[in-house]
Amino acid sequence: MKAATPMRVLIVDDDALVAQALTTILSVEEDVDVVGLGGSGPEAVERYRELKPDILLMDIQMPGGDGLSAAERILAEDAGARIVFLTTFSDDEYIVRALRMGSRGYLIKQDVAQIVPALRSVMAGVCVLEGEVLERSATMGLSGRSDSGADQGRAPRSTAFAALTDREYEVVEAVAEGLDNAEVAARLFMSEGTVRNHISSVLAKLGLRNRTQVAVLYYRCAQTG
Description:
This protein is α/β, with parallel strands linked by helices and 225 residues long. It has helices spanning 16-27, 41-51, 67-77, 92-101, 115-123, 131-139, 166-176, 181-188, 192-206, 211-223; strands at 7-12, 32-38, 55-58, 83-87, 105-108, 128-129. The chain has a six-stranded parallel β-sheet, with helices on both faces.
């Protein structure tokens, strides 16, 4: 049955063939309406202002202006903007920056079958992640939604971090802000050696491999409300 109000999607990708392929894939869905295309970060900002789409589906690396910078500008003007990144780059730093700014998803282009279900999830209020990050979040017992009313950008003390001490969680918050060990030590009034010990303990308790994954998990909790 045709949806009463299809989701309005703006696609921004510097590769015209990719943009057209995405348009074809999405347009066959009755609950999706592709309302426009763009090819650069600045064009994404301009077209978002013009079209006010329900979802902006955007590449990250574009010669005319990157998607992350464009997303920051859009979210500064419209904090409720639903931005989903679709990229070939599964770089942890990109993921962390995307989640920190308040994007609603991070998908990989190779898995095109997941795009439409992911967009539906975003419309339902779920933050969607791709591949290993999503799998890791699932093993942590995280659901697609959170009942917390915590402010965006600051994760509640969710069940994902239940095993941590209060001090360890303070270290997690500092790491998620991008602080290095020396900066964490200065903020929390502890030695760098103690910071390293806390981080090692956090990684062991959460089953993570590095501090970037800690930050990704933290911001997933913050953005799934």
